[in-house]
Amino acid sequence: MLMKVASFFSGIGGLDLGFINAGFQVVYANENHPETSRVFRENHPQTHVDTRSLVDVLPEDVPEVEGFIGGPPCQSWSVAGARRGDVDPRGRLIWDYAALIAKKRPKFFVLENVPGLMSRMHRQSLIKLLGRLSGGGYNVGYGVLNAGDYGVPQSRARVFIIGYRSDSAMFFTRPP
Asked: What are the residue numbers of the active site?
């Protein structure tokens, strides 16, 4: 039986496709940009897409799943972008995602974002985020991975924050 995951900030479904190819079943997706959610539906017709903003999604709206996957908006965390962090409403969505993780308590979660989240200017937010996630009962690890190191013909660095519920005794270790 396939492990079920819920996808947040789903975009057109790239992260979802990776999980599907790894043997997971995406049973719920949340993407509130109209054109993007339309393309997601075309790419993943078997998955229900909730088009509300994550701030309007209640824990009971999300089905029971083993994992959460998501990449909250990155513009606010990018050193080449707005650099406003969680002062920007888009940047605050990272906290809504963390709150939903804390309320639903999936067995694991993946949070993907730009390396700027680890920059000096956002260091306090990163420390607070890691503390909130680990304080919510998760073994949390993080690291920057570059897609070009894994067969993708593009240099695309991203920070991955991965947590496993503490009762699982599992830990994220950065792949070689």
From this structure: 74
Q: Is 22 helix (H, G, I), strand (E, B) or coil?
A: coil
Q: Cα torsion for 65, 69, 72, 74, to the nearest 10°?
A: 180
pLDDT computed for residue 82 by the predictor: 64
What is the distance between the alpha carbons of residues 14 and 28, in angstroms, rounded to a whole number? 14
Tokens of 24: 């997971």
Residue 119 CA neighbour count, 13 Å, CB half:
18
| Contact (Cβ atoms closer than 8 angstroms) between residue 31 and residue 37 | yes
Orientation angle between helical segments 123-135 and 89-104, nearest 10 degrees: 20
Q: Residue 109 to residues 65, 79, 139, 161, 164: CA-CA distances in angstroms?
A: 11, 25, 10, 8, 7
Rounded to whole angstroms, the Cα distance separating 56 from 9 reads: 13
Q: What separation in angstroms does the CA of 85 have from each of 30, 55, 72, 154, 164? A: 22, 17, 12, 26, 25
pLDDT score recorded for residue 65 = 98
Mean pLDDT per 10-residue interval, the chain, length 176 residues? 94 95 97 96 95 97 98 84 73 94 97 92 93 95 92 92 94 82
pLDDT score for 9? 97
Q: In the beta sheet, which residues pair with residue 25? A: 4
Q: Looking at this protein, which amino acid is placed at residue 94? A: I
Distance CA 35, CA 38 (A): 5
